[in-house]
Amino acid sequence: MDSESFRVCGKTVVDYIADYMDNIRDRPVLSSVKPGYLYELVPPEAPVKGEDWKTVLADVENIIMPGITHWNSPQFHAFFPTGNSYPAIIGDMLCNGIGSIGFSWIASPACTELEVQVMNWFGKILDLPKEFLNESEGPGGGVLQGSASEATFVCLLAAKDRTTKRIKALDPSMTDGEIKAKLIAYTSDQSNSSVEKAGLLGSMPMRMLKADESGRMTGPILAEAMAEDIARGLIPCYVVATLGTTATCAFDCLEELGPICNENDIWLHVDAAYAGAAFVLPEYRHLMAGVQFADSFDVNLHKWLLVNFDCSALWVKNATYLVDAFNVDRVYLKHRYQSQDPQVPDYRHWQIPLGRRFRSMKMWFVLRLYGVEGLQAHIKKQIHLADLFGKLVNQDPRFEVTTVTMGLVCFRLKGNNDWTKNLYERLMASGQIYLVTATVRSKLVIRFVVCSRLTEEVDVQFAWDEIRGQADRVDSERDVAPASICNGLSGAWPKDKVDCEELTAATPIVVKSLTQG
Amino acid sequence: MDSESFRVCGKTVVDYIADYMDNIRDRPVLSSVKPGYLYELVPPEAPVKGEDWKTVLADVENIIMPGITHWNSPQFHAFFPTGNSYPAIIGDMLCNGIGSIGFSWIASPACTELEVQVMNWFGKILDLPKEFLNESEGPGGGVLQGSASEATFVCLLAAKDRTTKRIKALDPSMTDGEIKAKLIAYTSDQSNSSVEKAGLLGSMPMRMLKADESGRMTGPILAEAMAEDIARGLIPCYVVATLGTTATCAFDCLEELGPICNENDIWLHVDAAYAGAAFVLPEYRHLMAGVQFADSFDVNLHKWLLVNFDCSALWVKNATYLVDAFNVDRVYLKHRYQSQDPQVPDYRHWQIPLGRRFRSMKMWFVLRLYGVEGLQAHIKKQIHLADLFGKLVNQDPRFEVTTVTMGLVCFRLKGNNDWTKNLYERLMASGQIYLVTATVRSKLVIRFVVCSRLTEEVDVQFAWDEIRGQADRVDSERDVAPASICNGLSGAWPKDKVDCEELTAATPIVVKSLTQG
Where does this protein have coiled-coil stretches (chains A, B) (predicted)? Predict the structure, then answer.
């Protein structure tokens, strides 16, 4: 493809994307394809001769689109939002157009320095303690990671290195291996799966402490677990506190956890992947009280802040720990200005991979084109829409609303979990809206999240009408069938393995079998 | 930004990118900014009100471009290429426009299935053993990782898990911790820095074995090291062989290493990040002889195969090992078709992060718009251009050419390293072309790589004219100054820490100080 074809093709694709967004309500949010659908449509071998771009673009519509789950549809209410906006798309086009790999300052000075600067911008927007900013006197700073998963993991490794050196200094007779074998990490059972995975990746047992009734990890919960482990000869090393858990958007008690971690030289990482975005609004910042105790803090711009995946903002109070854990310098990577001056960081030492995209470009476009007020308005509106949905559900006496917070509503049909499960399966079979479930203290709930930036009140009403309509059908079934349709199902579904687990993404057949049950 | 503004802005940016590529020779390949330049130009706070896109786009030209190292300039000959092409940019625009997050099949079926299919395409293009393909009967398959760094690391973790279970089965009295503390990995001292880093990240000692005179890790080298370690009570677990080392593009002897690994149940990972691309041409496939012994194989499409970063193709013979090492399932991630059927993999278990971009889209565009013949022509041309450069250097009796292979030429001025260092500093001070150095068996060499897809014979001639011209200046200095200008410099530069290391990215002042020396 030469420049002239690119000009034509690129502009066609710009229109295609705009048309896609303008008409996204016309597409079913959930794909109805069956596994393997694409292998019938895409030949088993790559073409020998190059093809025309028009053919490929037509295949995007005909082959790809039927298999897309539309994350940016206003009918998408599953998981948490994925960031998406026109300014981010523009910024990423430029990132690709320039195509530099900013692993060190010299490899593209603008790539490093823009990242430093927008991380300072964003840290100030959230009102983070200034020790986290690159512009502070100290060794703190911000860096863009690919995901909160990576942020949690790199901080675990830094914590491991820091603790190993500290213990070694206290007891030089211990080997590094002996020390590392005793290290232990903590999080709550409500933290994201990526936190547990970080423990697996980093070979450090990650204790999943049972959260309190509100889904929070508290000081006493942590203190008790630590005391047990210390008595067993283990060394507490790393704590991951969540601000905004995945299931119910609960906030761990940073003000209680922080002093415990600080007093015991334990690295405190704050995973605010989703809810951290709300701190652009001063009225929600009380929820991060205690952040001054943290060693690291992460929030995904690619979730609730309109930047396309991947763009996860991580700040650390002392970047030296990251650099010490990861630094493997080679001749071909050396350059004149090499230093760990936070003003000119060599970001390759702050992350897992060597290479890195010019991610700050899309973030810069979003921050400038929206402005702080634009971001605040976005978050405010999404919280408002979720509140509205919560009110609608609350007005229906068949339902119980267990959570309304930060753009998330968790609800269920009153009574046995089976009815909520039945409702959920009908919703999935109908496919008008996309939701996922969670189990909270053995209660099955359906999570409703305002995900798309295109969601309006009319979409919230649409979702509620659909849910209410399906609940009517459940009601009619309640009259003829016992609550426990599937043998062996209990309140613990779907955590326990049961045959009915197969039904979580439903088809008409599934509903039929349930109706027959 | 609404849809209408995006249509206008997006098309302007398409033209901006095309103009940038069309006129890239007008821009100096290396930025001449000083550290911190951008902090003077970008205000310390984000704007409160949203700005106009025209203002931001003007700032891209005025603020960002001066700080860009132009990786796609035909005068860029440093490191290895970074993939960049119009089809890839188009594909990534669509990836962002759709904006789905394909962590599981249901999260976007097309995202998973297109990745399966293009990985099969690409595996066949390279003529990989079919056990690596998703379409084989067995548990093998391909997956896109963000980088070769991540590929090396995830395979290390899978190897660790596999070996731990194996040893545990042999000796149930050993704890996992005891086993893991004995595991050891091997690579050569010529492997990429990311391999050493994988050892750090995964808490497994990575022995950097001294390569032979040709820069290769051979069977005897590995066997000797393993025997030493086994005698010390350690358990060999993981070997990373490189096809195309960073310094000199050497190829480890897979046919010797493979049987040793297989006989000893050691995971053999092949890092063909750069040179693996050349296997699109049958005439180079003898260089991967022995690949059938490997457990995993990685090549970066984002290096030499025209796909924008990030896009690293990893195949494994048995994906179960990855899944076993990483699987942390939660209710909110469950879906009906969940399985580890290689036809419908849940790719989140094959990688570090939970989230993932629709990376296969850009790969699909590149494979279809270039076709296999287009990719072959690209690699052929780049190898030809490097060969041409090698011939030019060889014709000058002042120079010694140490490597000409696969688009890479390593050369030096005959004699003491200081003259090559002096030449390199002059080249960097002049800034007409960008190169990096390497130290090979204590000889300093300058690496010349054909990086940009825009490079033509005229650019190779330009580079050679510049190098020859700067060599003339070194010659004139040879007449007046002793070879060892910098006290303490020896043949080992720049591996040893010396003051002169500060001179690797030069300015006129540096050259002056050298001339005065």
Answer: none
Decide if A361 and B1 are in contact by the 8 Å CB cutoff.
no
Query: How many angstroms separate the CA atoms of B504 and B510, rounded?
Result: 9
> What DSSP string runs through B119-133?
HHHHHHHTT--GGGS
- Structural tokens at position A420: 């909520």
> Which amino acid is residue B501, in one-letter code?
E
Q: What is the ipTM of this complex?
A: 0.91
Q: Which amino acid is at B465?
A: D
Rg (CA), chain A: 25
Q: Inter-chain contact B110–A65, Cβ cutoff 8 Å?
A: yes
- For residue B256, the one-letter residue type is E
Task: Please give the model's pTM, rounded to 2 decimal places.
Answer: 0.91
| pLDDT band (50, 70, 90) for residue A441 | confident
Query: Taking CB atoms and an 8 Å limit, are B341 and A67 in contact across chains?
Result: no
Whether a cis peptide bond, with omega within 30° of 0, leads into B310 is: yes
Is the separation of the CB atoms in B46 and A122 below 8 Å?
A: yes
Contact by Cβ (8 Å): B125, B148: no
pLDDT tens-digit series, residues B302-341: 999 999 999 999 999 999 898 888 776 555 555 544 555 6
Query: Which single residue is written with the structure tokens 């095309």?
Result: B18
User: Are A7 and B22 within 8 A, CB to CB?
Assistant: no
B 285-304: CB under 8 A from A: 302
Q: What is the pLDDT of residue A341?
A: 62
DSSP string for A369-382: HHHHHHHHHHHHHH
Low-confidence ranges of chain B (pLDDT < 70): 328-343, 480-517
Q: How far apart are CA A41 and CA B476, in angstroms?
A: 66
Q: What would the two tokens of residue B498 be?
A: 């010396």
Q: Contact B77/A399 with Cβ under 8 angstroms? A: no
Candidates A20, A40, A42, A155, partner chain B, best to mutate (most B CBs within 10 A): A42
